[in-house]
Amino acid sequence: MRDYTENELCETVFYLARYAECLEIDKSITVTDERELFWMILEWAQEFERNFDPSGEKDHMIELETQGPQWLRETFPYMPEEDVARKAIIDFVIFESATSVIWPWALPADEILQNEELLRKVEKAASFDSQGSCDTDELYDVLDRVVGVNPALKEAPTPGPRISQPGM
Questions:
Q1: Disulfide engineering: 142 pairs with which of 79, 125, 135, 154, CB 3.0-4.6 Å?
Q2: Is residue 128 within 8 Å of residue 84, measured between CB atoms?
Q3: Closest alpha carbon to 15 in 69, 77, 78
Q4: Residue 84: pLDDT over 80
Q5: Domain spans in the chain, listed from the N-terminal domain onward
Q6: How far is residue 21's CA from residue 41's CA, in Å, rounded to a whole number?
Q7: What is the pTM of this model?
Q8: What average pLDDT does the structure give for the chain?
Q9: Nearest-10 Cα torsion for 148, 149, 151, 153
Q10: Do the Cβ atoms of 109 and 98 come closer than 8 Å?
């Protein structure tokens, strides 16, 4: 345990707050109460500074960069919001699952619906209006790019006339 300066503590609080902001923007954490976040960051910074040995082999910033995001992810796990655009994507995939004769995508509907990263990519790639509506053709195209096309559809023969000869 060591004493730390006010500047060291402020710098550590600053960097932890920046990590929290970046992780929240990246949708890696969910902060529901900023005051709770502030007090947690202050406590972590005090603990970090008390336990860090500046004369030791470890680098202050590398240790902070390693521990800070880990603390934040453990304490404030990401909880996705069910927003309008996300609901539209989910409804679209469910509708396609119930009505498609041949499933159009490389992954089954349940895998698409349970994969947060895929849904986030689709949400970012598709254009939604303020009511959460999106052109279905665009959603098809985005899902084709993000999820991939069903291999059976890729291998389907191209339509065209076939000449068959009667048996001899």
A1: 125
A2: yes
A3: 69
A4: no
A5: 6-75, 84-154
A6: 12
A7: 0.51
A8: 87
A9: 180
A10: no
